[in-house]
Amino acid sequence: MSAELVPTDVPSGLRASHADRDRLVDVLTAAAGDGRLTAEEHDERVGAALSARTLGELAELTGDLPDAPGVVPVKDVVRIEQQFSSATRGDGWSVPRRMEIHSEWGDVTVDFTLAEITHDTLRIDLDLRGGTLRLITRPGVVVDTDSLVIDYGKARVRPAGQPGTPVVLRVEIRGQLSMGRLEARPPRRLFGRKTATA
Question: What is the mean pLDDT of residues 109-126?
Fold first, then answer.
């Protein structure tokens, strides 16, 4: 169980997020429902999970439980490298803590509309030369380009949802954009239905 919830490449001393704690509470509740934990054990572990400060503390609470079906391990870093082509990340993928995107003369689309968001922040380290980085957002996903260096390129960020929508994910983009475009926008509507196609 701990290998599913806390990836082996993530230091156990790393601070846990609210999403990390909530995910573990769900696993503990399912284990209690299966009869693997008594009501007292469940209450005790849930209390410990809600007060845990690190991922290592969370992992200890599920070390004696079997792997839970349907719990997808979340990678710490996702890398996308491509030239003269296109790459897409979407359809229910798990958002990591960090992405490294290296693209030359091609398009990269990162679609958050059906993504599983397990962290408060996603940092994107970008090296884009030509082409477009397209972020398809949803309400609660905020894109920050303050640390992005733009050289003969354009960045356009359109918010998704109404003003005052609670932030569930902050996407911080750093690095360099040369002779290309960054677009962050909600899904487009076609004939009254939403679609994430570009």
Answer: 92
